[in-house]
Amino acid sequence: MLTSGPSRRAVLAATAAAAAITAVSSFPGAAEAAAAASAAPAAPAYRWRQAVIGGTGFVTGVLFHPAVRGLAYARTDIGGAYRWDDRSARWTPLTDHLGWDDWNLLGVEALAVDPAHPDRLYLALGTYAQAWAGNGAVLRSEDRGATWARTDLTVKLGGNEDGRGAGERLLVDPRDSDTLWLGTRHDGLLKSTDRGATWTAAAGFPATPSAAGQGVTLLVAAGRVLYAGWGDSDGTAANLYRTSDGASWEAVPGQPSGTNAKVPIRAAYDCHTRQLYVTYADAPGPNGQSDGSVHKLATASGRWTDVTPVRPASGDAFGYGGAAVDARRPGTVVVSTNNRWSAVDTLYRTTDGGRTWTSLKDSAVLDVSETPFLTFGADEPKFGWWIQAVAVDPYDSRHVVYGTGATLYGTRDLKHWAPQIRGLEETSVRLLISPPTGRAHLISGLGDVGVMYHERLTASPSRGMAADPVFGTATGLAQAAAKPSCVVRTGWGDHGNGAYSNDGGKTWAPFAAQPAIAKDAPGPVATNSDGSVLLWSFVHWDGAKYPAQRSADNGATWSEVASFPKGATPLADPADPTRFYAYDTDTGTLFASTDRGLTFTGRASGLPSGDSQFQLAAAPGRSGDLWLSTKWNGLYRSTDGGATFTKLTSCWASYTVAFGKAPAGASYPAVYQVGSTDTITAVYRSDDAARTWARINDDRRQWGWIGATIAADPRVYGRVYIATNGRGIQYGEPA
């Protein structure tokens, strides 16, 4: 799953702490909440919901509670954790209260339940383990995630790093519910004896952590014995350890070795047969695996047996990932392949302890009618990829679920499979448009799943991903203000990087031609108010910027615009088709064109430069009414087409701004922003052209980093759409 916030390509941190000393706090803090409440006018009552797409991100773990029928939890790499409600057949988000400053905690490294206390739940949070990322935290709940207490760690976790599908790395000790264990990537094994309130380095754990390794990949209990997987082995040294007393650890004798046993990915214990099943791969995954195996350990005798269902081979390379046992049927186990692109990943199921296996994919009937995007532009959906989370319902042997890079599939009969994803939205949202007319109130540009046309906000778009061509990640999305039937989009695609629509985004056609640079650097796009001119800017993912290109024939031919600031985001004037604008953040200069994008000249200068985040927006229906939001310098406005700007004093930081239908009796549209006033970053609305702001989200609905973009509905007063980085599209309107 891509993100629209900090880069997911960052390298691993080069240092590791020797021990983990923790600070304890409760959440939310009363002092912070009081300060936030005094920072802005009283918030109007808002109702918040999710625009339904359905999943779209990597579900990295699923855990059924062993003692409560119908209770399960799921974790994701950037979208937080969820609780399954079997009666309503949907997921409830548990971490939406994490706000702007805690964006790094939306990646869930691991989760744990207490078999003896069904209401207890623990989450280990931390998205990145890089030096620039914040430290991890542990959340603990006594009411299944309805409320939380929080402990901030002094080490980093990596819920969106390589190996994020391994685990679980968090475990309640079966001998003592007050004792918890947490495996880290670069800081060894941690232990808590007060139910996660404080943590210290576990004494006696023999493996030595490194700054660039995987560290502890899994923790599992086999009766009263604990096992820990270790991901830093070269395939010859020990990669599986155990303890029977919680004090002394040893390498498990006779454990598998070799390339395909380099990293233990998952483990599951069959208490009936006293067999521990372990999946292995030659890399942590989810990418990069080319070999793997499955082994079982008879914990009473210490005998290991290779029970690999199918051997990876040349032309059919893959690793093994998920592992789950059937609590009701001894010897029944399900494992998954991972990174198997040629033959497509599958689940293997055995009912005789691994002597024989059946591929569940071979007889599977997939129904993705509820989330049509899962075909990814093909005729049929795949069974899955990035399958590392697998679970078997302990109360229903035929209820099996598995996570993929885009959804969570479930079955009740081992043959018919459908997404079991209601309520779980993990999309990284990049771009949003709310059209002034037409059937759709929303068109979205997304990470990994391109562009979608939302005919209804309460159902996944029936057309799935926009096709002709299909994009992976959208980079540009624009609509002609005076001709809303004209929409253009750009993005990363294998069969073209730009497309146009003449029916408001329902159907698309690829540009007849495109500049050569578009394949490697498809940046943002704009179309003027009558749809006669396209302006395409080019930015490579590594930050390299290239000259913009212009087309006056719907993408049939293109010409370079040398005077356009390289890499800037083009903006069309909503009322005058001859005008375009661009803000050059490198120099702090506003550029404008009055000849339909043929040439650009500098206007206002001395604006904030070097700001890592900014947005230039135009108030609808007005020519030259420009708003510039800047991360560190607040909000600016121009009413003369960018010749001059005035800084507004009503906020000190502004990340993104949008305009919606004006309130009754007002002539100027309602203004919305994600910004900061005094002590808190939040979602705000202004009904008086930004003289005053009212916060419209609340402490329970913050969704981490929400700085990519927002859109407001021009037809429904008060409705605003929020792009999140892992929690899909949230939309609110007055209650």
What's the architecture of the largest domain in CATH terms? Answer: 7 Propeller
Cα gyration radius (Å)? 26 Å
Percentage of residues assigned to helices: under 10%
Q: Number of DSSP helices?
A: 1
Number of domains: 2
Architecture overview:
By secondary structure, the protein is an all-beta fold. The protein folds into two domains: about 25-420, YVTN repeat-like/Quinoprotein amine dehydrogenase (Methylamine Dehydrogenase, Chain H, 7 Propeller); about 430-735, Methylamine Dehydrogenase, Chain H. The protein is built from one helix and 57 strands. It has a five-stranded antiparallel sheet, with no helix packed on it. The longest helix has 8 residues, at about 30-35.
SSE topology sketch:
Blueprint: E1 23-26, H1 30-37, E2 46-51, E3 59-64, E4 71-76, E5 81-85, E6 90-93, E7 108-114, E8 117-125, E9 137-141, E10 149-152, E11 170-172, E12 180-183, E13 189-192, E14 200-201, E15 216-222, E16 225-230, E17 240-243, E18 250-251, E19 263-270, E20 275-281, E21 292-298, E22 303-306, E23 319-325, E24 333-338, E25 347-350, E26 358-359, E27 365-366, E28 390-392, E29 400-403, E30 408-411, E31 416-419, E32 429-433, E33 442-446, E34 451-454, E35 474-479, E36 487-491, E37 498-501, E38 509-510, E39 522-527, E40 534-539, E41 545-551, E42 559-561, E43 571-572, E44 580-584, E45 589-593, E46 601-602, E47 614-618, E48 626-630, E49 634-638, E50 646-648, E51 653-660, E52 670-677, E53 680-686, E54 694-695, E55 710-712, E56 720-723, E57 729-734
Parallel strand pairs: 27-31
Antiparallel strand pairs: 1-10, 2-57, 3-4, 4-5, 5-6, 7-8, 8-9, 9-10, 11-12, 12-13, 13-14, 15-16, 16-17, 17-18, 19-20, 20-21, 21-22, 23-24, 24-25, 25-26, 28-29, 29-30, 30-31, 32-33, 33-34, 35-36, 36-37, 37-38, 39-40, 40-41, 41-42, 43-44, 44-45, 45-46, 47-48, 48-49, 49-50, 51-52, 52-53, 53-54, ...
